[in-house]
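Narrative of activities, Objective 1.

The group set out to show that a structural description can be obtained from nothing but a protein's sequence at a throughput compatible with the screening campaign. Below is one input-output pair from the validation batch, recorded exactly as produced.
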Amino acid sequence: MIRPASPTAPRSSRASSSSLPHDARADHERRAGPPQASSPPRGAGAVPRDLGADVSALLEVRDLRTHFATDDGEFPAVDGVGFSVDAGKTLAIVGESGCGKSVTALSIMGLVPQPPGRIAGGSVRFEGRELMGLPATQMQDLRGNAMAMIFQEPMSSLNPAFTIGEQIVEGLRRHKRIDAAQARERAIAMLRRVRIPAPEQRFHEHPHRLSGGMRQRAMIAMALACEPRLLIADEPTTALDVTIQAQILDLMRELQQETGTAIILITHDLGVVAEVADDVVVMYAGRVVEQAQVRTLFAEPQHPYTVGLLGSIPRLNGDAARLTAIQGQVPHPQRLPMGCGFADRCPFVEAACRAAPPPLKMVNAAHASACRRAPLEPSVLIR
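Output recorded for this entry:
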């Protein structure tokens, strides 16, 4: 069930920081620092009642804002993002490159490199516990344990100097307080569980000895070794062929059914979203522009950007037709327009769209859109 948490305000392994070999982990956490304390939301009008916090959700994100400093000043990479995720459910975050998907995930995990990044405000609650402002040692206890993350490129995420087994075992020993023999046994069991052949042999091999698909499976094994209640998967099937991609998605779905883990899936592939997600968040230029259950979003998108994304997908049924192209370019984060970030590319733009950012409003009980014209008329939905 979709419960948007906030309207859009005005503007070893990285799989788990704690499972990195100690030198790499120390450097990574020095750069990242703990999530910073939240500051009051900027005035964007009243929050609709249906967009209030959901205390029953496993993860609740509200008005999350992450900024980066450059020589030309500070800019918002994530600007007022909010959503919730329930245990055992999969939430997909979709959008073009640079829209803020990965920065949102890093912000949740407390891994935004500081400097140049900083959490400018907002709230992230995990199992009712506020993570913003949490001491670094307490975040380290959560990362790789209750919360884990699979990064986009396994070859650059796995430490080439350590074997696959060493990188899994370190996290297990830190979080589960088990001896080396027990950790080794559990690590091999996890490699077997993700269907890596000859797991006893792979345990002793370095990352470069594995194929891309096997490395991604090893990353999943590492992330799930401590049985996290939340798994963030950042483009987990990028650069994999379609056969391996399908196997990885099936594996994640199977493990989720067995463990009840909540998954946040970051992707630009709407085909993947349709196959595995329960709910969808669409991001554009650092903001959430639409939220809905997956079937609803594909059947009745309520933001012109989502309409354009769906119109660009080739279809196997029906007559062949020219695909829809979204004209123009994504605005640079340092040159965002005053109003709607999509206004310059939107075929339905109105003068009011350029005056102020449209709030994320409920179209119905389980569908929210940041478009002044929502609910969109049928003529707009024809793709």
